[in-house]
Amino acid sequence: MPPLRGQAPWPQHEYVKGWGVFGLPFDSGHVLALRVFPENCFGPYRTLWHRDPNGSWSIHVDGPHLHTACPRYYGASCDHTGYARIGLTWTGPATLRVTMDSPSLDWTLTASATRLLGFLNGISGALPLATWRPRLLVRARERLARALGMGDLQLSGTMPSGHTGTLMPQRMYFVDDAHALLDGVDLGRPVQLTENPRIGDVPLPARGVLAIGQAAWKILDPAEYERTRIETARDLALPGEDGP
Q1: Which helix (DSSP H) or strand (DSSP E) does residue 215 occupy?
Q2: What is the pLDDT of residues 152-179, one digit of tens each?
Q3: Please, which domain of life does this record's source organism belong to (predicted)?
Q4: Are 70 and 76 in contact (CB under 8 A)?
């Protein structure tokens, strides 16, 4: 996806669009997540999320601002947010190597899909975004995710920041094969948990999932949103830039 500053699909919302590892728990108690959002309201960024076995969350941002990346929505539940260089290299058709400079991370993962998941991806990718508005249809997707081993996933709700919104994965793939070294420590093997890991009150998948899609949140403070649009417009000129 090319970098793009765009507008949310729904009025009075802000959005992100891209892909990432929704969450990946390890048998050591660590959890990793990755977000790659070249398209959103403010400017492209990548983030690496880490939860240690004690439940402490960190979000590392490769982008111009912390307050326009994932910490905007989840930073209130983190013990640390900061900047890092995050590298992405596809070493095979479905194998990704993720690196980070500080803290040092070398993480390789392979995504896969069962026949059922491939079938569901085909249906989900063809459905219009309007099907994410009715609460009953969102809950139906959550029940389906539970049946696929993702646990009690919530695709809509309130973020630690107070923003309310909806996560809209259009295609999902399992991540059952991965290896990660964080500051030289081997995080172990991917595992399916009996309880979903949470950042604040927001549950992440109970098993490793790579997702492609978007998310939209209702604008919490219209004046802050417009001010941030103006500030970030000065940082870069991207295709589709329409000014503040």
Answers
A1: strand 209-218
A2: 999 999 999 999 999 999 999 999 999 9
A3: Bacteria
A4: no
Q: Are 73 and 217 in contact (CB under 8 A)?
A: yes
For residue 53, give Cα distances in angstroms to 8, 29, 32. 36, 4, 11
HSE of 221, CA atoms in CB hemisphere, 13 A? 9
Residue 154 to residue 203: CA distance in whole angstroms = 6
Name 179's Cβ contacts closer than 8 Å, sequence gap at least 6: 107, 108, 109, 186
Task: Find, among 35, 60, 44, 71, the residue nearest to 212 by Cα.
Answer: 35
Give the pTM.
0.94
Q: Is the peptide bond before 222 cis (omega within 30 degrees of 0)?
A: no
Helix, strand or coil for residue 24?
strand
For residues 34 and 20, the answer to whether their CB atoms sit within 8 Å is yes
The domains of the chain are located at: 16-216
Other residues' Cβ atoms within 10 Å of the Cβ of residue 130:
10
Please say whether the beta carbons of 42 and 244 come within 8 A. Answer: no
Cα separation values, 3 from 40, 57, 211, 238, Å = 9, 28, 18, 7
Mean pLDDT of 104-112: 98
Task: Give the integer Cα–Cα distance in Å for 116 and 122.
Answer: 10
Angle formed at CA 81 by CA 31 and CA 237, multiple of 5 degrees: 110
Output the CA torsion sign for 221, 226, 227, 233: positive
Distance CA 195, CA 216 (A): 26
